[in-house]
From TrEMBL:
The lineage of its organism: Eukaryota, Metazoa, Ecdysozoa, Arthropoda, Hexapoda. Residues 131-324 form the CHK kinase-like domain. SUPFAM superfamilies: Protein kinase-like (PK-like). This is CHK kinase-like domain-containing protein. Signal peptide: none annotated. It comes from Aphidius gifuensis. Pfam families: EcKL. It comes from the Eukaryota. InterPro entries: CHK_kinase-like, EcKL, Kinase-like_dom_sf.
């Protein structure tokens, strides 16, 4: 079946026309034709169906009819998926992303001036859940290779922009303190009534523990510790990553990994810009949430060895940007940032042990999240048995064990 045949009936000319009229504030716009095709490849996106929509439309300009063409991205949340249906209800991911794209990020970008953090959102609705965004590929942006991991230059662009993202979010929260509670949940929070989400995350850690148990360099010692973690994985993480109002906090992207950012390249194919996409689970907490997640989900092993250097760049840009845009809140000191990184390094463990094996799956092994769940409480995740993946996480697990992160 083609994407045109499988797209929902309500993704039609009328919806696109409504979006354009609202975004452009031009009631003369008439959509003539739309054509759709998949907007992402298998394994690139688990929470939404993504369509690329080519649009032909007309509008009146000085009494003349002008013909135009535009390419859009439309994200449709997986309401048929039991797990994501629970997430939509529990976290309200659709309205979070609409608010983030159409309000909060708009204000954040005003503080920054010429820095573009994300693509323009034309329209959003929660029933049926859909968000319409400009197609950044038209402007030359594209995804990096999620399986290889980012090199230092890509990571440097990302970390500097993440610092600006966090800094501008501080200014936005100072302007509207209600954002703290609006973005107060994230993935891990208590109380959480999403039974399937807990089961999936606990099961993912259990599957990882089983793989580690038979890995020669780690063995039963690590497997047993991880199995104990998996028994109450969700609640443990919610407790250890809870908001501390006395710390420096920001609006985190919440899912800051390589596939939720796009890169632009110059004529020599060298990266010269970066932008963020997908804002379904932003959360107001320590910036160490985004940082630990990004470092452990998205960097190549070689780049990860330069973590401290990247963290210094983040700190420099964060402090400079907060000063430039007039934040009243004081930035953390370098020592405070390092302490937060250690305190919330458990988020890096989550990224590496639960998310990375799924993120790095080959296309032939990628499947819907619900289809991964097995009757024994584990998940069918081919990624955790991949020797290349296990080799990547071995040193990290040994480090985290030394830090005491694997002890319940």
């Amino acid at each position: 079946m083609t994407a045109e045949m499988t797209k929902p009936a309500w993704l039609n000319n009328e919806l696109i026309e409504k979006a354009f009229k609202k975004s452009e504030q031009d009631d003369s716009i008439k959509v003539i034709k739309i054509s759709t095709k998949p907007g992402s490849e298998k394994g690139d996106n688990y929470s939404s169906d993504v369509y690329r929509v080519n649009v032909e439309f007309t509008r009146l300009k000085l009494s003349n009819i002008i013909h135009e063409k535009r390419s859009l991205i439309i994200k449709i949340s997986h309401t048929e998926s039991p797990i994501f249906k629970e997430m939509i209800n529990e976290i309200d991911v659709v309205n979070l992303e609409i608010k983030m794209l159409m309000s909060t990020l708009v204000e954040m970008q005003k503080f920054l001036g010429d820095t573009k953090l994300c693509g323009k959102c034309l329209y959003g609705q929660d029933k049926p859940p859909a968000i319409i965004i400009e197609d950044l590929a038209v402007s030359g942006y594209r995804l990096a290779d999620r399986k290889v991991g980012l090199d230092y230059q890509h990571s440097l662009f990302a970390i500097k922009n993440l610092a600006k993202f966090h800094a501008s979010s501080v200014a936005a929260v100072e302007q509207d303190p209600s954002l703290k509670s609006f973005y107060g949940k994230g993935v891990f929070f208590k109380p959480c009534n999403s039974i399937l989400m807990k089961q999936f995350l606990n099961g993912a850690m259990k599957s990882f523990a089983t793989a580690v148990e038979s890995w020669p360099e780690l063995g039963p010692k690590y497997g047993n510790k991880l199995k104990k973690l998996s028994d109450n994985f969700y609640d443990l993480f919610a407790e250890r990553t809870a908001l501390n109002e006395s710390e420096f906090n920001v609006i985190n992207h919440g899912d800051c990994w390589v596939n939720n950012m796009m890169f632009h390249y110059d004529d020599n194919n060298k990266v010269d810009n970066q932008i963020f996409v997908d804002f379904q689970i932003p959360v107001y907490k320590s910036p160490a949430i985004d940082l630990n997640y990004f470092f452990n989900s998205s960097l190549s092993d070689e780049t990860l060895s330069q973590r401290d250097k990247l963290l210094k760049e983040y700190f420099k840009v964060l402090t400079m940007t907060m000063k430039r845009i007039g934040c009243k809140t004081s930035p953390p000191t370098a020592d405070e940032l390092n302490r937060m990184m250690s305190k919330y390094e458990i988020y890096g463990l989550f990224a590496a042990c639960v998310c990375l094996p799924i993120m790095a799956l080959d296309k032939e092994h990628a499947k819907p999240i619900d289809d991964m769940m097995l009757d024994d409480g584990t998940i069918d995740d081919k990624g955790v048995t991949n020797p290349v993946f296990l080799k990547r996480v071995t040193k990290r697990l040994q480090k985290w064990d030394t830090m005491g992160l694997l002890d319940v």
